[in-house]
Design brief:
By secondary structure, the chain is an alpha/beta fold. The chain has 21 helices and 15 strands. A hairpin with a 7-residue loop joins β10 and β11.
């Protein structure tokens, strides 16, 4: 598996090899049997998992120049001396899945590092979920290539199936594919929100929780709308009163009854009627009444010209023109007279029109501003009408929203009570199972319970209904030793205790756990060889429904591995290299012997190693211990205890 710098394959060769392998039969019974170690324990898992990590390629990462790890479907154990780089492999996987930043892990002198994982995705549901998370067309891909690149500049990039994805997408994909648990950190199970989801899976209340979440979000949105409406109720009332006053004021002016230009023309006439009449009289007198009136003189001139026409025909045209002018002026004089006769001083009409014009100009100044027009006022009136309709509708919306919220609240209460009852029953069933598992793992005094946390009284009504996950939140609590108060699982200080607690819980929740690839970094911390055998069998049983990757220092655990991988460090040309190699047959026996006695391997230590491998094929607690019976309980009313087929498990 591993390679020295002289034998390193480049990334393109690795990808080509992956593509070539993807044309073979997927990991199934035939392919899996070929990969089985000669010393694999009885009852090794078959490839019915939703997914698994088939291969991991690491290039230019810290001490690893180039290494390829081929992994099995069941329990994969990594062994090697302290400092050889075992945790570096887990760190590379964390980088690949977006659980940690690359930081300064690029190998010294390299311009680019890369971590590549080949995931076999047997579950169509899982493929659809990943396609949804990444918005990429990978639903039909049985195998997916996940790549994380690290550059000397500090920049990183990620891709899935050859398509680039963001860091947020990468982390979401990682949380779906794997759960990595180290001595002092955990990913999925330590998150209280995920604890609640796992409890729902165990108690078969997931569908009910989904219904509750959907209605909760609907109510939350409606409540926000109602809060916004109620918060602005005073302002809306003030706006409504203002707009109603403005609309009434504009409507009272009857702006459409008489055009403004006609009113202004009539006002000018009435305001100047005496002047108009006086000057019109003078004009009429000059035309018709005075001794030297124009019309009389024109008639005299026309008579003279007509007499000249009889003497000289050339005067006919000017004579005709003067005569016509006299006729036109005569008609003008009569029209002027009629207009003068109709002119009357009317103070009442003048006052009425003046008041109306003043009112119109005041509205223009008020609603259109300086330079505004009557059209601007009319446009403002139309806007007022629209706002009045909106404000009146808002009042109706408050009543309608209140009715809808009352209905949703009733539904939430009913669903929430059913959901809480199911979770309480699931917790009641889960707690004794965890106690039995912990007893097998050397923590028989530890007390485990599920704490249900109700909403805090006095919070806003939308929060009084809990969260979208239900009427309560949960916290997995543990008191590892007698006399100690229970604390949240995520706050347990001891890495060894936390590892065993995690293993106990995962052993029980194995059939409902939504993550199929489980990674344990030094789960044997602070435990002895006797407990190592128990942990080894637990991991082996857990690997029946999950792919398990485990770093261990104990031969008792490594003997249960379906695939045993050793990691060792070499020095060439004053440079350190971490190499990875699969162990089988005598090599594996010798590695276990070295883990027992160190480098001084003796026939006795070899015999002990061989005995460990043989015992791993016939685990001692398979059917005799309480924990084993808890993993295979008799049928009970609580359906969640019954194991499901891994192939049918949701991702």
């Amino acid at each position: 598996m591993g390679s020295t710098p002289a034998r390193r394959n480049n990334q393109n060769q690795f990808v080509q090899a992956v593509l070539a392998r993807s044309t073979r039969e997927p990991f199934g019974s035939a392919d899996y049997n070929v990969r089985q170690s000669d010393h694999s324990p009885v009852g090794s898992p078959c490839m019915e998992f939703g997914h698994m990590l088939r291969e991991l390629h690491i290039s230019n990462l810290a001490l690893i120049a180039d290494a390829t790890l081929e992994l099995d479907a069941g329990l994969n154990c990594f062994t090697g001396q302290t400092g050889a780089g075992k945790s570096l492999v887990i760190g590379a996987l964390e980088i690949l899945l977006g659980f940690r930043s690359a930081g300064d892990m690029l190998r010294h002198g390299a311009t680019e590092g890369r971590v590549t994982g080949v995931f076999h995705l047997a579950s169509p549901l899982l493929r659809r979920r990943l396609a949804t998370l990444t918005d990429l067309p990978i639903e039909e891909e049985a195998e997916v290539l996940l790549v994380r690149r690290i550059f000397a500049s500090g920049r990183t990039s990620a891709s899935i199936g050859g398509h680039p994805i963001s860091a947020t997408m990468l982390k979401a994909v990682g949380e779906t594919l794997a759960d990595i648990h180290g001595q002092y950190d955990a990913q999925f199970l330590l998150n209280p929100a995920n604890q609640l989801a796992l409890l729902d899976d165990f108690g078969q209340t997931t569908a009910l929780a989904g219904q509750f979440a959907q209605i909760w979000h609907q109510r939350h949105q409606l409540q926000q709308q109602l809060d916004n409406l109620e918060a602005s109720q005073t302002l809306r009332r003030q706006q409504l009163e203002l707009y109603e006053f403005q609309a009434s004021e504009i409507d009272a002016a009857e702006l459409h009854s008489t055009p403004l230009d006609q009113l202004e023309a009539r006002q000018r006439i009435l305001a100047n009627v005496e002047k108009i009449k006086s000057q019109a009289e003078a004009a009429y007198a000059a035309l018709y009444e005075d001794d030297s009136a124009v019309i009389g003189r024109l008639k005299t001139i026309a008579t003279i010209l007509l007499e000249l026409v009889e003497l000289d025909g050339e005067f006919s045209e000017p004579a005709s023109q003067v005569r016509d002018a006299a006729i036109v002026l005569d008609e003008a004089a009569f029209a002027l007279r009629r207009r003068i006769d109709r002119l009357e001083l009317n103070p009442e009409e003048l006052a009425e029109i003046t008041d109306r014009l003043n009112a119109i100009h005041r509205l223009i100044h008020k609603y259109a501003g300086a330079g505004g027009t009557l059209d601007d006022v009319l446009s403002h009136r139309r806007h007022i009408g629209e706002e009045l309709n909106r404000l009146r509708q808002a009042h109706a919306d408050v009543s309608e929203l209140s009715a809808q919220l009352a209905t949703l609240k009733k539904q939430l209460t009913e669903l929430g009570q059913r959901l809480s009852a199911g979770r309480q029953q699931a917790a009641k069933t889960l707690i004794p199972l965890v106690h039995r598992q912990l007893a097998d793992l050397g923590m028989k005094e530890a007390r485990f319970h599920v704490e249900f946390i109700a909403p805090v009284p006095g919070v806003p009504s939308v929060q009084a209904d809990g969260s979208s996950q239900g009427l309560e939140s949960v916290e997995l609590m543990i008191a590892p030793n007698p006399g100690q108060p229970a604390a949240p699982l995520r706050k347990i200080a001891s890495g060894g205790e936390l590892s065993r607690i995690m293993l106990a819980i995962k052993s029980i929740l194995a059939t409902s756990d939504r993550v199929s690839v489980l990674v344990f970094d030094e789960i044997d911390a602070n435990v002895g060889g006797r407990m190592g055998a128990v942990i080894g069998e637990k991991l082996h049983r857990l690997a029946r429904g999950h792919q398990v990757l485990c770093i261990t220092h104990l031969p008792q655990i490594a003997s249960f591995a379906d695939r045993h991988i050793t990691i060792h460090k070499t020095v060439e040309n004053n440079q350190s290299f971490t190499n990875v190699r699969r162990l089988e047959g005598p090599e594996r026996t010798r590695e276990l012997a070295e883990m027992i006695t160190g480098k001084n391997v003796t026939p006795i230590s070899l015999a002990q190693a061989q005995e460990l491998l043989e015992l791993a094929q016939h685990p001692a607690i398979t059917s005799s211990t309480p924990a084993a019976r808890a993993e295979n309980p008799a049928p009970a009313p609580q359906k969640a205890v019954r194991k499901k087929s891994p192939a049918r498990r949701s991702p």
